[in-house]
Amino acid sequence: MRSVSEVAALAESAHSGQVDKIGVAYFGHVRAVADGLEPFGDELVMAGLLHDVLEDTDWTAEKLLGSGIPARVVEIVEVVTNQAGMTYEEKIRRITADPQATLVKISDNAHNSRADRAAQLPADKRERLAGKYRAARAALWPAADPRDVEAIVRIVNPALLAELAAQRGTVSVPAEGSA
Asked: Which segments of the chain have a pLDDT < 70?
Protein backbone atom coordinates (compact mmCIF):
# COMPACT_ATOMS: atom_id res chain seq x y z
CA MET A 1 0.00 0.00 0.00
CA ARG A 2 1.18 3.48 -0.81
CA SER A 3 1.60 6.28 1.71
CA VAL A 4 -0.23 9.60 1.38
CA SER A 5 3.01 11.31 0.33
CA GLU A 6 3.56 8.67 -2.38
CA VAL A 7 -0.01 9.15 -3.62
CA ALA A 8 0.52 12.92 -3.64
CA ALA A 9 3.64 12.45 -5.78
CA LEU A 10 1.72 10.13 -8.11
CA ALA A 11 -1.13 12.65 -8.47
CA GLU A 12 1.28 15.53 -9.02
CA SER A 13 3.08 13.56 -11.73
CA ALA A 14 -0.18 12.42 -13.35
CA HIS A 15 -1.46 16.02 -13.55
CA SER A 16 1.93 17.46 -14.55
CA GLY A 17 1.52 20.19 -17.14
CA GLN A 18 -2.24 20.44 -16.63
CA VAL A 19 -3.95 23.64 -15.55
CA ASP A 20 -7.41 24.18 -14.11
CA LYS A 21 -10.20 26.45 -15.39
CA ILE A 22 -8.34 29.55 -14.17
CA GLY A 23 -4.94 28.57 -15.52
CA VAL A 24 -3.38 27.43 -12.23
CA ALA A 25 -1.39 24.18 -12.00
CA TYR A 26 -4.01 21.46 -11.59
CA PHE A 27 -2.27 19.75 -8.68
CA GLY A 28 -3.15 22.77 -6.51
CA HIS A 29 -6.82 21.87 -6.88
CA VAL A 30 -6.41 18.19 -5.97
CA ARG A 31 -4.17 19.15 -3.04
CA ALA A 32 -6.85 21.56 -1.74
CA VAL A 33 -9.53 18.88 -2.07
CA ALA A 34 -7.31 16.42 -0.18
CA ASP A 35 -6.61 19.02 2.53
CA GLY A 36 -10.35 19.26 3.19
CA LEU A 37 -10.44 15.52 3.78
CA GLU A 38 -7.60 15.41 6.33
CA PRO A 39 -10.00 14.98 9.31
CA PHE A 40 -11.29 11.73 7.80
CA GLY A 41 -8.09 9.72 7.43
CA ASP A 42 -5.57 8.64 4.84
CA GLU A 43 -7.93 6.78 2.48
CA LEU A 44 -10.07 9.88 1.92
CA VAL A 45 -7.00 12.09 1.58
CA MET A 46 -5.72 9.69 -1.09
CA ALA A 47 -9.12 9.73 -2.82
CA GLY A 48 -9.02 13.53 -2.78
CA LEU A 49 -5.57 13.56 -4.34
CA LEU A 50 -6.71 11.14 -7.05
CA HIS A 51 -10.31 12.30 -7.53
CA ASP A 52 -9.73 13.59 -11.08
CA VAL A 53 -6.97 11.26 -12.22
CA LEU A 54 -9.25 8.81 -14.06
CA GLU A 55 -11.08 11.48 -16.03
CA ASP A 56 -8.19 13.87 -16.70
CA THR A 57 -5.15 11.63 -17.26
CA ASP A 58 -4.24 8.33 -18.90
CA TRP A 59 -4.41 6.50 -15.56
CA THR A 60 -6.99 3.70 -15.24
CA ALA A 61 -8.50 2.06 -12.19
CA GLU A 62 -6.51 -1.07 -12.98
CA LYS A 63 -3.27 0.90 -13.19
CA LEU A 64 -4.01 2.57 -9.83
CA LEU A 65 -4.66 -0.81 -8.21
CA GLY A 66 -1.51 -2.22 -9.77
CA SER A 67 0.53 0.66 -8.38
CA GLY A 68 -0.52 -0.10 -4.81
CA ILE A 69 -3.48 2.25 -4.35
CA PRO A 70 -5.95 0.65 -1.90
CA ALA A 71 -9.03 -0.85 -3.58
CA ARG A 72 -11.43 1.29 -1.55
CA VAL A 73 -9.63 4.47 -2.63
CA VAL A 74 -9.94 3.40 -6.27
CA GLU A 75 -13.65 2.64 -5.75
CA ILE A 76 -14.24 6.13 -4.37
CA VAL A 77 -12.36 7.70 -7.27
CA GLU A 78 -14.44 5.69 -9.73
CA VAL A 79 -17.68 6.87 -8.10
CA VAL A 80 -16.72 10.57 -8.41
CA THR A 81 -15.43 10.21 -11.98
CA ASN A 82 -17.56 11.49 -14.87
CA GLN A 83 -19.02 8.73 -17.03
CA ALA A 84 -20.04 9.07 -20.66
CA GLY A 85 -23.77 9.55 -21.11
CA MET A 86 -24.40 10.39 -17.47
CA THR A 87 -25.76 13.83 -16.63
CA TYR A 88 -24.23 15.85 -13.82
CA GLU A 89 -27.41 15.40 -11.77
CA GLU A 90 -27.20 11.61 -12.22
CA LYS A 91 -23.55 11.72 -11.20
CA ILE A 92 -24.41 13.60 -8.01
CA ARG A 93 -27.15 11.05 -7.18
CA ARG A 94 -24.65 8.21 -7.74
CA ILE A 95 -22.12 9.94 -5.50
CA THR A 96 -24.58 10.51 -2.64
CA ALA A 97 -25.17 6.75 -2.47
CA ASP A 98 -21.57 6.37 -1.20
CA PRO A 99 -20.87 8.28 2.04
CA GLN A 100 -17.11 8.55 1.45
CA ALA A 101 -17.47 9.60 -2.19
CA THR A 102 -19.94 12.22 -0.97
CA LEU A 103 -17.28 13.74 1.28
CA VAL A 104 -14.77 13.81 -1.58
CA LYS A 105 -17.28 15.57 -3.82
CA ILE A 106 -18.20 18.04 -1.06
CA SER A 107 -14.54 19.00 -0.77
CA ASP A 108 -14.19 19.23 -4.57
CA ASN A 109 -17.32 21.37 -4.80
CA ALA A 110 -16.18 23.64 -1.97
CA HIS A 111 -12.85 24.30 -3.67
CA ASN A 112 -14.44 24.83 -7.08
CA SER A 113 -16.86 27.30 -5.44
CA ARG A 114 -14.22 29.57 -3.93
CA ALA A 115 -14.93 33.19 -4.84
CA ASP A 116 -11.25 33.91 -5.49
CA ARG A 117 -11.22 31.18 -8.14
CA ALA A 118 -14.59 32.07 -9.66
CA ALA A 119 -13.62 35.75 -9.95
CA GLN A 120 -11.02 34.77 -12.55
CA LEU A 121 -13.62 33.23 -14.88
CA PRO A 122 -15.65 35.09 -17.51
CA ALA A 123 -18.95 36.33 -16.01
CA ASP A 124 -21.19 33.98 -18.00
CA LYS A 125 -19.14 30.91 -17.07
CA ARG A 126 -18.86 32.07 -13.44
CA GLU A 127 -22.66 32.38 -13.16
CA ARG A 128 -23.34 29.04 -14.85
CA LEU A 129 -20.87 27.18 -12.64
CA ALA A 130 -22.08 28.93 -9.47
CA GLY A 131 -25.60 27.65 -10.16
CA LYS A 132 -24.36 24.16 -10.97
CA TYR A 133 -22.26 23.95 -7.81
CA ARG A 134 -25.05 25.40 -5.62
CA ALA A 135 -27.50 22.80 -6.95
CA ALA A 136 -24.96 20.05 -6.27
CA ARG A 137 -24.50 21.26 -2.69
CA ALA A 138 -28.27 21.08 -2.19
CA ALA A 139 -28.00 17.32 -2.86
CA LEU A 140 -24.55 16.62 -1.39
CA TRP A 141 -24.78 18.37 1.96
CA PRO A 142 -27.96 16.61 3.18
CA ALA A 143 -26.38 13.26 2.24
CA ALA A 144 -23.55 13.72 4.77
CA ASP A 145 -23.26 14.23 8.50
CA PRO A 146 -23.62 17.98 9.14
CA ARG A 147 -20.44 17.99 11.26
CA ASP A 148 -18.47 16.43 8.41
CA VAL A 149 -19.76 18.98 5.90
CA GLU A 150 -18.88 21.80 8.27
CA ALA A 151 -15.39 20.41 8.88
CA ILE A 152 -14.67 20.29 5.14
CA VAL A 153 -16.14 23.73 4.42
CA ARG A 154 -14.17 25.32 7.28
CA ILE A 155 -10.95 24.04 5.72
CA VAL A 156 -11.61 24.44 1.99
CA ASN A 157 -14.02 27.36 1.65
CA PRO A 158 -15.16 29.08 4.86
CA ALA A 159 -17.19 31.54 2.79
CA LEU A 160 -19.72 28.72 2.32
CA LEU A 161 -20.43 28.60 6.07
CA ALA A 162 -23.24 31.18 5.70
CA GLU A 163 -24.90 29.03 3.02
CA LEU A 164 -24.46 25.98 5.22
CA ALA A 165 -26.00 27.81 8.17
CA ALA A 166 -28.99 28.79 6.04
CA GLN A 167 -29.44 25.23 4.79
CA ARG A 168 -28.97 23.51 8.14
CA GLY A 169 -30.26 26.19 10.46
CA THR A 170 -27.04 26.45 12.48
CA VAL A 171 -23.26 26.14 12.32
CA SER A 172 -21.26 25.50 15.45
CA VAL A 173 -18.70 28.09 16.45
CA PRO A 174 -15.22 26.74 17.23
CA ALA A 175 -14.06 26.96 20.82
CA GLU A 176 -11.80 29.87 21.63
CA GLY A 177 -8.24 29.15 20.54
CA SER A 178 -9.19 26.41 18.06
CA ALA A 179 -8.78 26.63 14.31
From this structure: 1, 170-179
